[in-house]
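Example complex used in Figure S2.
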Amino acid sequence: MKEVICICCPKGCHLQVDEEHDYKVTGNGCPNGLAYGKEEITNPTRIVTSTVRVTGGIHPRCPVKTDKAVPKKLVPAVMEALNDIDLKAPAAGGAVVIEHVCGTDANIVTTRSI
Amino acid sequence: MYDVAIIGCGVVGAATAYALSRYDMKVVVLEAENDVAEGATKANSAILHAGFDPEPNTSMARLNVDGIALAKQICDRLDVPYKICGSLVLALSPEELPHLQHLYDNGIANGVPDIHLLSAEETLQREPNLSKTVQGALWAPSAGIISPWEYALAMIEVAVRNGVELRRSCPVSNIRKKDGVFSVSIPSDTVEAKYVINAAGVYSDKIHNMICKPSFHIIPTRGEYYVLDKNEGELVHSTIFQCPSKVGKGVLVSPTVDGNLIVGPNAEEVGPEDRGCTAAGLSFIAETARRSVPGFSLGDSIRNFAGVRANVDTGDFIIGEAPDVENFIDLAGIKSPGLSSSAAIALEVIKIFQKKRVLPEKKKDYKDGRKKIHFKQLSAEEKAKLVHEHPEYGRVICRCETVTEGEILNAIHSDVPARTIDGVKRRCNAGMGRCQGGFCGPRVLEILCRELHIDPLQVLQDRDGSYVLESETKQGGKHHV
Ligand SMILES: Cc1cc2nc3c(=O)[nH]c(=O)nc-3n(C[C@H](O)[C@H](O)[C@H](O)COP(=O)(O)OP(=O)(O)OC[C@H]3O[C@@H](n4cnc5c(N)ncnc54)[C@H](O)[C@@H]3O)c2cc1C
Ligand code: SF4
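Predicted assembly (595 residues):
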């Protein structure tokens, strides 16, 4: 039995996930928690939020994120990829900075215009 | 060659520089830290003590009473925040009542104006949020609260404006005397002066011993504090002391000039650099303070800090020419009430020069006085006019304390300019509020970089070495998109 806290909404239910019985979730307040609890134990994923270097913009860095969750174990690799970027301003909000980052189906997109 | 070298720029060094700056002499102030008021002067209770505590006929008694009268005049002249809010010493049990009488008698002997003893009812009428166990109190209406660092800053600013040289980041490491001239060693330089004034706080014994026979020993004694948010600031309206007892001596609860509530201090012998707070010290303070003011909420604590007193094994302040080294003047062992006494201590130096018949004429073109813009305190019309003329006052940088970019620029370009984030804070209050610089800190950093033409990685929070930023993020930059 594993304990996780659901991050899908602010209620933050304390979920119990039973690995021995097909990852049966209890303690959830709604169905989102069921899916989250199972995924968090079997294949945890995260949205990565960070910044990239910018040349020629009004700020030296631009905030970015993955447009989908990526496997948690790939987060360090995604950060490595972001470390290498030099974004040329101007760029619109939502512009794709890296397509299919680290072989996932997620893109890195800007979260503001610069 | 200087006439006078003052070692240390806490409130005592600053007051001395201010007093001497009126006279036609060449004065240098050597301060070890990168800013003034970095020692005990920035970390204390900030009380202008009425003067009933020191034993009669001590230097402390006389200079305290004279010092706060002078402090009020100087604060009015130099635009330093202070408030004469009065102080109460509480007797919390019948056994403590005789102590109030003792303090009253001291006060009368020391010449403290208008003190009187209050009954329990009168005390509670004055301060309804005190413990109901109160048996009576000593009321001293001449006591007050002050911004201690601003007091020191204001005095050194006016001194500098009138020709006193201030050298920061100049720790004195040695003093020699030859043919009547002192050579004072600072990093990669030597300063020569006819007179040396030792105002080095907790290090005043070390400075003394560099050239004089050891004759006193500083016992650094730490006091820790809570600063509570402004929504606790109205709990009491005057400074609330307790009688010394087994559980504690000197824990007070007081409003501050900024409208916060301050709770502390304890007293613990430590090393001169031990400015950290401890869980044990803080819980002792909270528990002891609740004896007099039970209702404050520690959930509203916005800051803890500690200051180190320069207590001295000989008891009284040590003020005067060293017996074995002519023209070396100690202002040493300036513990509490040193802040209250500082302006009077400075006049003692003038008297020493007078007595030695070496005090020159007063400067003819002396420029006294100081006026600051406190945007928050202006009327709506005044604000509108100021913003119209100087748009930088229209940009609020510190939202907790409503400090504008204009005020921050004034701090960075003043006679004793701010060079660090806390230097800005001490000069204009940015970062002093509820969020303690969480929001305005990065913006103050940007302004410092812009105005001083420095790299963000060079900006210090406060003392040397306290870099805010470690390195740049995202340094790869090889893949252009
Ligand atoms: C916890 C606490 C509570 C207090 N409460 C009150 C109060 O409510 N009311 C009151 O009146 N007083 C109070 N005091 C006392 C008051 O704060 C001090 O007496 C006063 O600030 C002393 O000023 P100073 O200039 O002598 O020392 P400091 O402010 O310590 O200044 C000494 C300066 O000398 C510098 N220095 C040291 N060594 C060297 C060197 N080798 N070379 C160059 N510079 C050097 C230091 O960097 C420092 O800036 C309190 C003190 C403490 C610690
Ligand atoms: S289980 Fe449902 S209700 Fe509970 S935190 Fe997750 S999303 Fe919110």
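Residues 19 and 85 of chain A are 40 Å apart (CA to CA). The helical segments of chain A are 31-42, 75-83.
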